[in-house]
Amino acid sequence: MRSSSYPAPHGAATGPVRRSLRALLVLAVTAGLATAVPAGARAAAAAPAAPPAAAGAQAAAAGGTAATPYMGWSSWSMQSSQYPGLNPEGSYSYLTEANVLKQADALATTLKPYGYDYVNIDAGWWMDNSWTPGYDQYGRQRPDPVRFPHGMKPVADHIHAKGLKAGIYLPVGLEKGAYGNGEVPIWNAPGCTTADIVYPDLRTTNGWDSAYKLDFGNPCAQKYVDSQARAFADWGYDFLKLDGVGPGSAKSGDNYDNVPDVAAWQQAIAATGRPIHLEISWALDIGHAADWQRYSDGWRIDTDVECYCNTLVTWENSVDNRWQDAPAWSSKAGPGGWNDLDAVDVGNGAMDGLTKAERQSYLTLWAINKSPLFTGDDLTALDSYGVSLLTNREVIAVDQNASPVARPVTPVGDQQVWAAKNADGSYTVALFNLAGAPASVTAGWASLGFAGSASVRDLWNKQNLGSYRDGITGALPAHGSRLFTVKPAGHALVTTAYEAESAANTLGGNASVADCAACSGGHKVGNLYAGGTLRFNDVTAAKDGIYTVKVAYTSGDPRSVTVRSNSGNGTSLPFPSTGDWGTVQTVAVQLALKAGANTITFDSGADGYAPDIDRIDVPQSG
Fold this sequence. Notes:
Layout: H1 19-30, E1 71-74, H2 76-80, H3 97-110, E2 118-120, H4 152-161, E3 165-171, E4 174-175, H5 194-197, E5 204-205, E6 211-212, H6 219-235, E7 239-243, H7 259-272, E8 277-280, H8 289-295, E9 298-300, H9 322-325, E10 338-340, H10 356-368, E11 373-375, H11 384-390, H12 393-400, E12 407-408, E13 415-421, E14 427-433, E15 439-444, H13 445-448, E16 450-451, E17 453-458, E18 463-469, E19 471-476, E20 480-488, E21 491-492, E22 495-499, E23 506-508, E24 512-515, E25 523-526, E26 533-541, E27 545-554, E28 559-565, E29 571-575, E30 585-593, E31 596-603, E32 612-619
Parallel strand pairs: 1-2, 1-11, 2-3, 3-7, 7-8, 8-9, 9-10
Antiparallel strand pairs: 4-6, 5-6, 12-13, 13-14, 14-20, 15-19, 16-21, 17-18, 17-20, 22-32, 23-26, 24-25, 26-31, 27-30, 27-32, 28-29, 28-31
Helix pairs in contact: 6-7, 7-8, 10-11, 10-12
């Protein structure tokens, strides 16, 4: 018997390229639809206004739902995998009450002592194994009686009895199958039906176009979201993943602007009086980062990490994408809202589909980015290496502490150095070799802003390595990594700043000076494309040597620029995105300078597009 009259929310597939699931979903939600209103009925309707917003999520970090990135387990990775034995009743059939409770029990005994406490049920809990959805009399998702024979509240009760938190899933919008010819009443909203909560032309929304877009110009739409939130609160859920949200989820345009939906969910959750973490997905538009920060507790920055193959993930599809995509979001996360890199599937050995080196690098990147640490592994079959990764308290502390999100401090080729300065003056430093063959990677202290010696602790091996002068080098396997805490014992690097917009410099091609509120001096040099160049003149060095020059720049996407000193040929260096053209970040490049006056040139190349340059900081000694 069902334990509650409130049925559950819906969930379409999560992720960008869920081809087979998407096909099933489209078939499911289009079955039995009412006759659509002609497309021209309200084609020019005004964009919906966002409902009144509660206090912004980041401003309300003290509220506790996202003071630190959440940790736990999610069902999706195993649901979506073709690994032998995981889905014996057909695609995505792993999701059942019995399997969720089995994983909850395993989480409580293996990972809960290390901070993992969420058990998140993903897409499909209201659908049968042929992906046919079920809804209650108020158009809300109803748990499938075969997958969840006792309903959703007893599942949450069991999870809570283990000292854990329960999570659930929903796609954004009104699912097509819930429309019911527009005659379905809205719970606790006399006079409101499903016809009132969507646009008359039944425009579609979300990453799969599986739902009708809610019209928040009509108060009935907020009432519908309120009814869903009330159901989750009454069932005892502590977490909601709202999926297919745009702009993002591979969609853009007015139909896919779901900012009003996210705002409505924040308001509805607040009205329940129950703290519910609101996570939104997937590949969200960074141009709306302020909206995601205001209305949610976390946001997926990228595609699905799962490979939809015979393992859970693979390096190429799509773990390795994060090294390119995460830097743009580095300034967006903080207490109250976090950049979500998706599941971290590093615990199951062969099922994960990764080498040991890849598993360590995967978790290292997630930790230094302060991503939520939730695994999609089978917690009943963790191997010893996986347990050692997932339970390393020093690495978990990097993810959970209050220091800033790390970002690359060197150009982002196959060998990368990422770092963040901690509140106590130490640095978290990660070395990565993304190449398919072994290579050495060096973190120079000058790239961190100091000179001399520093003590180094290896976090993965939990050992102090002693004092290192000028930097540390790691010999890394293919796709390998190291993670350190570095405590400077030397002195701050003394540098001379040279502004890009200085009249002493030489601009070539299309290069020009532009205003930049975030830049030092209020200006930068941009339009470095198709042969555009910026040459810093009269850069002074005390003696011949190799100098670590910090470059302050802005770039709305990853871009390369050829950097050369004096008459050298220069090297094309890939700079990571800073997130937008008004956010300044730095990378350190090494250049040979001679005693006396030098030139340093930034060249876009004949066919290239380079970042905008704010300034360079040149050490007073090499």
